[in-house]
Write a structure and sequence with these properties.
Elements lengths: L2 H22 L5 H14 L5 H9 L4 E4 L6 E4 L2 H22 L12 H18 L3 H14 L1 H4 L5 H30 L8 H7 L3 H16 L8 H7 L2 H22 L9 H22 L5 H25 L4 H32 L5 H16 L5 H13 L3 E2 L2 E2 H4 L1 H19 L11 H24 L10 H26 L19 H32 L3 H20 L3 H23 L3
Antiparallel strand pairs: 1-2, 3-4
Helix pairs in contact: 1-2, 1-3, 1-5, 3-4, 4-5, 4-12, 4-15, 4-20, 5-6, 5-12, 6-8, 8-10, 8-11, 8-24, 10-12, 10-24, 11-12, 11-14, 12-14, 12-15, 13-14, 13-19, 13-24, 14-15, 14-19, 15-16, 15-17, 15-20, 16-19, 16-20, 19-21, 22-23, 22-24
């Protein structure tokens, strides 16, 4: 085995090896188990190093294992290289943040969170490096289901509800992806390099495209499949939220890039148009829901939905216009790189603000958070400005309802500005718990902030040739500035109206008009109200049957009583695993029917 092949193997296997040590330590007795798990957790950030070295020294790395499964292969290209490096930085920082701290309780020394992060990392980079359909699917499944351990970490009621909704959505995603990949492989697309052409040539092109759009759309947070995101982020620890938003959602983007025949006329135009419409709805509707939140992590979750809408719009353009397919795909990857680091810094910064925003570190924390926020908004001289500039160049000349897409997409920065102003408001009012000494939480956050300044530029200018350079003209700088100024102006107007009492009480600065989860919460509420009305009606029927029973009709009474109890159990089930699953499955089924109809699969 060559050194490069060894690096690929270590990148995928080392996280599992250290996780195995943590899992098997329980056989050693309580005292020794705690020491072994703690030591393994302390070493866990080192498990990302082989993948980091791989991205730096072997841009064309390949590994083939013909005897494994149906022939397993891994390879590196520009997109995989860029996103793998971002995953290395974010997971390494997350592992440092949760392990290199002063331990104050036994739970933090158990290593469970570190173990789940390492397994997620292996699955995450596996989706980037996989060169065959089976390896891709297995890696995607490992990442998806192990992430449930991140969401449920705190074990409280909100975490349990978020986890069951996340798992239901993951099952829907995995089922759609599995069906799509089976059809792709049967058409001759077992290898990832052959997949787009095989999908285009298949007799079931429309069906495959719809399945893959839905399956990967769940992970990418595409509306209306986004409902798990605003529930999972506030439930998970901040370090886990950083990788969920910064790295895992990008696996959906990679799935689209790998398997869809982007730019091929075999894809029905209605499918690309539907995806573009959903992307723009998500990019702007998430702003409305996000600014009405009172939890800083929920605000950031809706910001991620908005930003992923921006990226999804680029994928839709690549589907619709063959001439710009390459440029739009490169822009999507570059924007994903920028967003991963900037949003990861903001999520990691939530506990940093809580613990280090005062005293000697206060100015440093303020500068770091402001820099990450400006990057997300796309301020001049930031990586966000670079990503938005490349994206605007890729979609120039494309219209939506008579408006140029290059005029619509900059308004996403206006929405991002409003969300970040809301984020700043709620986080400055959050509870503080100062720490005297810096630890891994602070240092890992600083590392991600520093990487966000330089890494996207290096990747865009040197690793992704189609991304192009940034124009430093006055026009380009103004294009990056005016959407932010518009957002600041709108935010200031709303703040002024709130101070003068001109806004409804429901929209006050401290209110939360839209609950996290938006659509799924509304569906649950409708089911609960329907269940209550049914129960009330059955209670009335019970009163009637009571009089009948007094005349000797006990059998009819028992039937009514059984029916009433069944309705009560159905109402209670809305909050259970099965109830939440029914709501989400029904919602997804409607989406599937609409998209398949638009895509010509029927």
């Amino acid at each position: 085995m060559s050194p490069v092949e060894m690096l690929i193997a270590l990148s995928l296997l080392m996280p599992f090896a250290v996780t195995g040590v943590i899992a098997l330590a329980g056989t050693l007795g309580p005292a020794r188990a705690h020491r072994v798990r703690r030591t393994a957790a302390m070493l866990s950030p080192l498990t990302v190093l082989p993948a980091g070295v791989l991205t730096l020294v072997a841009p064309d790395a390949e590994l083939e294992v013909p005897w494994l499964l149906f022939g397993t292969a891994f390879s590196m290209d520009a997109a995989a290289r860029a996103l793998t490096l971002i995953a290395v930085l974010l997971y390494g920082a997350a592992l440092m943040a949760v392990t290199w701290v002063k331990l104050r309780d036994a739970e933090r020394g158990s290593g469970a969170l570190s173990a789940f992060l390492m397994v997620c990392f292996a699955g995450n980079i596996g989706t980037y490096l996989a060169a065959d359909a089976v390896s891709f699917y297995l890696a995607f499944a490992v990442m998806s289901f192990s992430a449930a351990g991140l969401v449920i970490h705190y074990r409280h009621q909100a975490a349990r509800r978020a986890t069951r909704i996340y798992l239901v959505m993951s099952v829907i995603s995995e089922t759609a992806i599995l069906a799509g990949l089976i059809l792709t492989a049967s058409a001759g697309g077992y290898l990832v390099a052959d997949a787009p052409a095989a999908v285009a040539a298949s007799e079931h092109t429309g069906l495959i495209v719809v399945l893959l759009l839905i399956g990967f759309g769940v992970k990418a947070g595409t509306v209306p499949l986004h409902v798990w995101l605003p529930l999972a982020h506030p439930a998970a620890p901040p370090a886990a939220s950083a990788v969920l938003s910064g790295a895992m959602v990008k696996a959906g983007l990679m799935g689209w890039i790998r398997f869809l025949p982007l730019g091929d006329p075999a894809i029905p135009a209605a499918t690309g148009q539907t995806l573009l419409a959903l992307a723009l709805i998500g990019a702007f509707a998430a702003v409305v829901a996000g600014v009405l939140q009172s939890d800083p992590k929920v605000v950031l979750a809706y910001s991620t939905i908005s930003q992923m809408g921006f990226i999804t719009a680029l994928v839709a353009v690549a589907m619709l216009v063959p001439e710009v397919s390459g440029a739009a795909t490169a822009a999507a990857v570059l924007y994903a790189v920028h967003h991963g680091l900037a949003k990861g810094a903001l999520f990691l910064g939530v506990p940093v603000v809580k613990h280090y925003a005062g005293g000697r570190t206060g100015i440093l924390v303020a500068l770091g958070m402001a820099g990450a926020a400006l990057a997300v908004a796309g301020a001049p001289l930031t990586s966000g400005a670079y990503g938005k500039y490349v994206s605007k160049e890729a979609v120039e000349g494309i219209t939506v309802l008579g408006l140029g897409l290059d005029q619509i997409l900059p308004l996403v920065a206006t929405g991002s500005t409003l969300l970040l102003m809301r984020f700043a408001w709620v986080i400055t009012r959050a509870e503080r718990a100062p720490r005297r000494r810096p630890d891994g939480e602070l240092f890992s956050w600083l590392g991600v902030c520093a990487a966000g300044v330089a890494v996207p530029w290096i990747i865009g200018l040197r690793w992704i040739p189609q991304a192009g350079d940034f124009s430093w003209t006055a026009s380009a700088l103004w294009d990056a500035t005016w959407p932010i100024l518009l957002g600041v102006g709108l935010g200031a107007a709303v703040a002024f109206a709130a101070r003068r009492g001109l806004l409804p009480q429901r929209l006050s600065a401290d209110g939360q008009t839209v609950p996290p989860g938006d659509i799924v919460v509304a569906e649950e509420s409708l089911l609960v109200r329907g269940g209550r009305r049914t129960s009330a009606g059955l209670d009335a029927a019970h009163g009637v049957t009571a009089s009948v029973r007094s005349r000797g009709a006990g059998g009819a009474h028992r039937v009514a009583e059984w029916t009433r109890r069944g309705a009560s159990r159905a109402e209670a089930a809305v909050g259970s695993w099965e109830g939440s699953g029914v709501v989400i499955v029904a919602l997804t089924a409607v989406t599937v029917v609409l998209v398949m109809w638009a895509g010509g699969a029927w």
